[in-house]
Amino acid sequence: MADQPAQDKTEQPTPKRREDAKDKGNVAKSRELNSVAVLIGGMLAIKFTSDYFSQTVKMFFRNTYIESSLMQITVQSLPGQLSKLMLIVASLLLPILVTVLVFGLASNIGQIGFMMAKKALIPDFKRINPLSGIKRMFSSRSLVELAKGVLKVVILALVSYLVLTKYQDEYLLLATQTPSEIISFFVSVFFELTIKVTIALLIMAVGDYAYQKYQHEKELKMTKQEVKDEMKNQEGDPKVRSRIKSEQRKMVASRMMQAVPEATVVVTNPTHIAVALKYDPQSSADAPKVIAKGKRKLAEKIKKIAREHGVPVIENKPLARGLYEYCEVGMEIPIVFYQTVAEILSKIYSENKKRLPRLGGING
């Protein structure tokens, strides 16, 4: 169904469709947003380490000048000098690299979360198919990428022009200033230019992310036939069947818990089994009905709800086991249990000063 025209794909993607796409690494992600995040991280790192940077460089050159005047540089001393230089360069670059890495990862995780696309690691020979490559070159996505590239160049050129022409009068005064003032001027211009370019690219990146989300949803859409086929396939999936059964059990348990407050009595094992019985003399039923039953945790929950609502909880191991094994929820108790249940109900009714009606022809 992959060759179906886009206009036929009118159905929203199913959870399985989204999950399969995620497994293949097919997610909505903007590279532009990652690039801008890295740029912002680099700018902030340079901004906050600029004082340390300048102090370290000054100290290095001063120490190098002092040492060179006191000692003669030889082949033996050169490795030591180079090692010092490498350590200084590493100390200068490490904060910037770490910040850039953190910002890049944060942008990526913010867009797609923590994801391990296993299927994306499997080699796909279709990607190196020349015909597929040509199709990708002339696809709408490629045209959009080309347009984005052109737009970035235009933005960079326009912002650079506006910032640089803003200081054209100051350029004439540079000849009268000291080297440190000239450097300070160009650094401030550079930072202003970088900030404005970053803001422009950030706006563009946010728009690109919105477009990528829209395009991703559009590509994931399904035809009506694809939805039908997926539902048929899932019906035979053991995981899906197991999930459906689990949901059904939860629904049954929920309905049973809602019915427990209406019970006449709860018969227990006493710890492992609980069966809730309801007997309404005014109804057409000849015998009590099982309205809830459960083992272990479910049994404990039935007993807890029964006690909270004043429903008598009676211990009778043989009866509890028999009712649990032979009676389904909603079923009247078999005649073999009439006598025992009648005795229990008679006791409850006598404690409540009520007369027990005839139970299936057997009087308690």
TrEMBL record:
Transmembrane spans: 85-106, 143-163, 183-211
Subcellular location: Cell membrane
One BP annotation, GO: bacterial-type flagellum assembly
Membrane topology designation: Multi-pass membrane protein
Region feature Disordered, mapped onto this chain: 1-26
Record keywords: Bacterial flagellum biogenesis, Bacterial flagellum protein export, Cell membrane, Cell projection, Cilium, Flagellum, Membrane, Protein transport, Transmembrane, Transmembrane helix, Transport
Any one cellular-component term (Gene Ontology): plasma membrane
Family: Belongs to the type III secretion exporter family.
Protein name per its UniProtKB record: Flagellar biosynthetic protein FlhB
Organism in which the protein naturally occurs: Caldithrix abyssi
Lineage: Bacteria, Pseudomonadati, Calditrichota, Calditrichia, Calditrichales
